[in-house]
Model the fold of this input.
Amino acid sequence: MIPLKYNVKSLFVRKATTLMTIFSIAFVVLVYIGVLALAAGLRVAFGASGDSSTVIVLRDGTNTEMESYFPSETHRILATLPGVAQGPDGEPIASGETMTLQILKRQDGSETNVTLRGVEAEAFTLRPYIQIGEGRRFEPGTAEIIVGRQLAGRLADLRVGTVLDLGRLSFTVVGIFDAAGSSYSSEVWGDVQVLGDAFRRQNYYSATRLKATSPAGVQALIDAAENNQQIDVDARDEPSYFEAQSTTSSGVFLLLGNLVAFMMGFGACFAAANTMYAQISARSKEIAALRVLGFQRRTILSAFVLEATVLGLIAGVLGAVLSLPLNGISAGTSNFLTFTEMSFVLRTTPDVLAAGVAVATVTAVIGGFFPAWSASRAPIAKLLREG
Done:
């Protein structure tokens, strides 16, 4: 075998060409990791929204709360099902909730769809991680609203004390809440009955959330809801519900990321090939000498592919390091199931970084294979003449 030390040193004989190739591939990695970080951020946001002991009930045949609609009587029946946990006051921990779309302005003047969630008091019991970071909770029965922190940072009119016209009523923002990085950080919350009155949609719910007595009792509660002959509903645990939304929304970014990586990587392959051709041209006599010394063609091919691999690994690690500042940056996109504003933070997780390094390595190997094949198959006499 040709010593590894020889390969690594030879790679930097033509430093300018090699460095240009490294940076071109590293840029591909940076863009690719950026797109994957968006998808990872969405997955984390949706994953943080689900509670394994909470059951979400929708109208049968619907997939999201935005599509669902059922009368208040259905909610009353659901709240009395066996297996629903009770609070200290003996009342069932069940929250009837509504979802409404509202067009609001971003800070740059553009418009976006925002989720207005009408909730009952039990909504906070079901989501104990919802904490008021500024101001206070809304008072039930009043035209007051609270806003997720991620959303408040992106929209101009969502500050404590501002008045917002929603439907036929004016609402006062009384609090900004933190939602532990969940998708609720992109929503506006208010009293379910008052928001319903504002949009002339009284006595209906988009969904009901039920707290099971234990995680083990979730399936029994789901079966009780779906098998009840008085109502026509579809029930599932919250993690499953949000996983479906995560798969759809993050899948768009994964497709985009792979498409971008393919197009940019195609160009980077040529840069890698150019570097390897330059390396081989400058070392044709060395290659001829290796052949004379008895090194087989596949050994020489492997040596140059190894050089391309090292080139890709260096570029991949550089791109990954350059992408680290992306972690934690706030971003926003559309939930591709509800078409509403979704705010989250980018996540450059270890698997995302590893994917970037893998793309760089594959790009360099593909770009370096054909020059390496050419060098290993060239006649010795030709190599001596080129040198």
